[in-house]
Write a structure and sequence with these properties.
By secondary structure, this protein is mainly α. It has a single domain, classed as 23S rRNA-intervening sequence (de novo design (two linked rop proteins)), CATH 1.20.1440. The protein has 4 helices and no strands. The longest helix has 27 residues.
Length: 117
């Protein structure tokens, strides 16, 4: 088992969650159960999966959870794009968010090879 709090990728992903929560406070009230909730859930999924993977016993399990976190980072990238296109985020805020997503991608942390299903 690893201490996820020591991983730079987890630290960046945690900061990203805080930024998403902060920036989505200004979204329209009618998006509370729509895009706002989805953005927050997706952002939260990234560091959560890294943490869960670190608590697993095998490198294969860790790799699987890091892969899930990477998928969530791509999903968040799209949701930030949508929020920008809907006028909920400025271009600058969107660009900063996307940069954070790219920097928090789990390929910044070596993913053990996962073979089979």
């Amino acid at each position: 088992m690893r201490d996820f709090k020591e991983l730079k990728v987890w630290q960046k992903a945690h900061q990203l969650v805080l930024a998403v929560y902060r920036d989505s406070l200004a979204f329209p009230a009618d998006e509370r159960f729509g895009l706002t909730a989805h953005l927050r859930k997706t952002a939260l999924s990234i560091p959560s999966n890294i943490a869960e993977g670190c608590g697993r016993q095998t490198d294969r399990d860790l790799g699987r959870f890091l892969s899930i976190a990477a998928g969530s980072a791509n999903e968040l990238d799209y949701q930030l794009l949508l929020a920008r296109d809907l006028g909920f985020l400025s271009q600058d805020t969107h660009s900063i968010g996307v940069e954070q997503v790219c920097r928090s991608q789990t390929h910044a942390f070596p993913i053990p090879a996962v073979s089979g299903t």
